Each structure stands twice: as C-alpha cells, then as structure tokens.
From TrEMBL:
Name the record gives this protein: DUF1540 domain-containing protein
InterPro entries in the cross-refs: DUF1540
Segments forming domain DUF1540: 5-47
Amino acid sequence: MAKDVLCEVNSCTHWAQENKCSASSIYIVSNRPEDTHKSEETDCKTFEAK
C-alpha cells in the first residue's frame, strides 16, 4: 500500500476507508504538453473503476 496517499475518488477500486489509496504504486501523468504547475493539470493513471 502506498503510504500517506489520500484520494477522494471513492468510485476507484483502490479507494479505502478514510480516503486512503490502497494501490501498491501510483502513476500520475501531465495532461498538457507544457510544464505542469497545478494539480488540475494532472491525471491519475492508477484509477480503476469499481
């Protein structure tokens, strides 16, 4: 389990109680071609729908 990773997307397979992520690793990518400076400019590729 990834330590201290929080997630509010409770429709994800990896979502656990207290908004914790139970994935063994996390993969996040930029969703824009330029440098990323804000969280809104990223996407979690670890997401799997329940």
